[in-house]
Amino acid sequence: MKRTLIALIATSGLILGLPASASAHDTNDWAHISSIPSGYGYVGYAESQVGGVYQRVTMWRDNYNVLVLQAYASDTEEDGYCGSVQITYETPTSGGGWSGHYHTRGFGITDCTTNGAGVYYRYALSTTRFRNVYARACHSDPAANIIHCESNWHGPI
Q1: For residue range 57-86, what is the model confidence (pLDDT) as tens digits?
Q2: In this predicted model, what pLDDT tens digit does every residue of 15-38 receive, in sequence order?
Q3: What dihedral do alpha carbons 150, 154, 156, 157 form, nearest 10°?
Q4: Which of 77, 107, 129, 136 could form a disulfide with 65 if both were Cys (CB 3.0 to 4.6 A apart)?
Q5: Based on the structure, what is the number of domains in the chain?
Q6: Which residues contact 136 (CB under 8 A, 6 or more apart)?
Q7: Where in the sequence is the signal peptide annotated (predicted)?
């Protein structure tokens, strides 16, 4: 019984100690930029509205290699949550192929106003090539820490 209790406490500590998904601009996957570099072409967007949150992620790219993303979040209900965006994308292998591995990140924006204005994030430039970018709407706290997200991903863009 004592071992079971110790294992349960240790497991709970591990689960509670897990970090939330990193913000897209807080990793080395993305860099802040103020505008879209020349030569980048518009690709499309993914959007959704669920649980009082509207999100839209727009993408541009250059030669299918490096991406520029811009996100928008709007909190549409006074429910105690803020609106945020989460993205996921496939990473390349060191050999130049595709890994089948996805990085999932909060986009680092949050809207708590419910006034319909929403929040745009300036552009994020990928530091390497990615593909199969998906986005979804999330509830967050005012610091953009994601609390929970819709179950569906939208995209790829």
Answers
A1: 999 999 877 899 999 999 999 999 999 999
A2: 333 334 455 545 589 999 999 999
A3: -120
A4: 129
A5: 1
A6: 48, 55, 85, 86, 149, 150, 152, 153, 154
A7: 1-24
- The CA-atom distances, in angstroms, between 57 and each of 19, 48, 53, 117 are 24, 10, 13, 16
Q: Is residue 128 part of a domain?
A: yes
Is residue 96 assigned to a domain?
yes
pTM of the model: 0.81
Does 13 map to a domain? no
Q: Is residue 2 part of a domain?
A: no
**4-15 pLDDT, tens digit each:** 333 333 333 333
- Measure the CA–CA gap between 106 and 87, rounded to whole angstroms: 6
